[in-house]
Write a structure and sequence with these properties.
The protein has helices spanning 4-26, 82-98, 130-145, 215-228, 246-259, 262-266, 327-332, 358-365, 413-418, and strands at 31-47, 50-68, 71-77, 153-170, 175-193, 196-206, 238-244, 285-289, 312-316, 319-320, 347-351, 368-375, 385-396, 399-412, 420-423, 433-434, 438-446. By secondary structure, the protein is of the alpha+beta class. The chain has a six-stranded antiparallel β-sheet. The protein folds into two domains: 4-228, PmbA/TldD superfamily (PmbA/TldD fold); 238-446, no CATH class. It is globular and about 70 Å long.
């Protein structure tokens, strides 16, 4: 059962959203929707054991969208007083009366609405006092600095705890809400040997604070990762296999999702335009959306429009099964919403063989580059051209040989996806995209 204070918060937000919907209909809107939320949190950071920042966050907001036929208007406020709610609705209505008609505008189709709201175990508040958060961050940083004397400096350790309570409603009779939490602990350290200075980091994030990695482990891992980068070299320009660590591989998947999003498709600004039904990845790769994993960071019972989220095979044996759609982009494409207004919910990237263990993955890489950090934004979503600054490790005969930095990796995403030759079993669950390491057969590595 949800705690009583959550019930009270959701009831209060439901009343506010309900008032906005009633007022919009009273003012003549043919359709309307409202989203009311409260966010609160604490962020603490320390650097070299000294408190760097302490921030409390508490904000709230109401967003109202009204439709007069196919004309749309939106307005928002942070004032929940009834008079302010009515005034916000009036502003939205005034805007709608002057906007151009859009034949695709409107609420989600009624049959797509969530009829049951499952409890996904997303709400785990952390009663963390600032003093306790400071001590946690200090322990984390101290453990990292103690790994080796060459860890001479720090960019700090940070603790964050956040809770969101939101209610969404529309004039189709939908009104529902829930609370969710997110907590994190991170550490970034600097190592120096002579003139060589390197930095690296580690972090943990979870819905439930009890599932965070121990502060000492995060600090030690940050320290070990930073030390491993000392002595980094540049590479000469070459063609070579390129592997992405799991946290870097997530970005590759994110570029794919951007290309198959409804907005990119109807705007014809995608390197995977009209690619549904095509072999986009090798046959051993599949991608499943699983929105109802209890306690997962990407779980949600419904999307931003109230559409039910559901299990889905986005990529089956390398073939793109469909697009990532909200109701507006679906109408533009003559399709139905996939319950993805606001993005995907727990996308699981899987290999038919379950993925390779680390040693086997490196052996498959053979001699090539393992990327552990990316820089820059050199990705063209229209053409798929890809060029990013990178650092990581040069691998020889399946063994890490030495760290590398100040290099650029380049290719084209469409061909890069088809040239994936292995996935790792080292799945990173710290986000809404879950993937292991990714090995691409060959890319251009530019250096000296």
């Amino acid at each position: 059962m949800p705690p009583a204070n959550e019930d009270a918060a959701i009831r209060s937000l439901s009343d506010i959203a309900g008032l906005a919907l009633e007022e919009a209909q009273r003012q003549g809107a043919s359709q309307c929707e409202a989203d009311a939320s409260v966010n609160q949190g604490l962020s603490v950071s320390v650097r070299l054991a000294e408190v760097d920042t302490i921030e409390y966050q508490r904000d709230r907001g109401l967003g109202v969208t009204v439709y007069f036929g196919k004309r749309k208007g939106s307005a928002s406020t942070a004032d929940f007083a009834p008079g302010a709610v009515r005034e916000t609705v009036a502003k939205a209505c005034a805007i709608a009366r002057y906007t151009a008609e859009d034949p695709y505008a409107g609420l989600v189709d009624p049959e797509a609405l969530a009829r049951e709201i499952p409890d996904l175990d997303l709400d785990h508040p952390w009663a963390l006092a600032p003093e306790a958060a400071i001590e946690l961050a200090r322990r984390c940083e101290a453990e990292g600095l103690a790994v080796d004397p060459r860890l001479s400096n720090s960019e700090g350790a940070a603790v964050n705890t956040h809770r969101h309570t939101g209610v969404y409603g529309n004039s189709l009779g939908f009104l529902a809400g829930y609370s969710s939490t997110s907590h994190s602990l991170s550490c970034t350290l600097i190592a120096q040997a002579g003139d060589d200075m390197q930095r690296d980091y580690w972090w943990s994030v979870a819905r439930d604070p009890g599932e965070l990695e121990a502060a000492e482990h995060i600090g030690r891992t940050a320290g070990e990762r930073t030390l491993a980068r000392l002595g980094a070299r540049r590479l000469s320009t070459r063609r070579a296999p390129v592997a992405y660590s799991p946290d870097m591989a997530r970005g590759l998947v994110r570029h794919f999702l951007g290309a198959v999003s409804g907005a990119s498709q109807y705007r014809k600004s995608s390197f995977l335009l009209n690619a549904a039904g095509e072999q986009v990845f090798p046959p051993f790769i599949s991608m499943q959306e699983r929105p109802h994993i209890p306690g997962a960071l990407g779980s949600s019972p419904f999307d931003q429009e109230g559409a039910a989220t559901h299990d889905r095979e986005l990529v089956r044996s390398g073939v793109l099964e469909g697009y990532v759609l909200g109701s507006y982009s679906a109408r533009r494409l003559g399709l139905k919403t996939t319950g993805n207004a606001g993005g995907v919910h727990n996308l699981l990237v899987s290999a038919a063989d379950g993925g390779l263990e680390r040693e086997a993955f490196l052996r498959r890489l053979g001699t090539g580059l393992l990327v552990t950090e990316l820089m820059g934004q050199g990705v063209n979503g229209v053409t798929g051209d890809y060029s990013r600054g990178a650092s990581g490790f040069w691998v020889e005969n399946g063994v890490l040989a030495y760290p590398v930095h100040e290099i650029t990796i380049a290719g084209n995403l469409r061909s890069m996806y088809r040239d994936i030759i292995a996935l790792g079993s080292d799945i990173d669950t710290r986000g809404s995209i879950r993937t292991g390491s990714v090995l691409i057969g060959e890319m251009t590595v530019a250096g000296e």
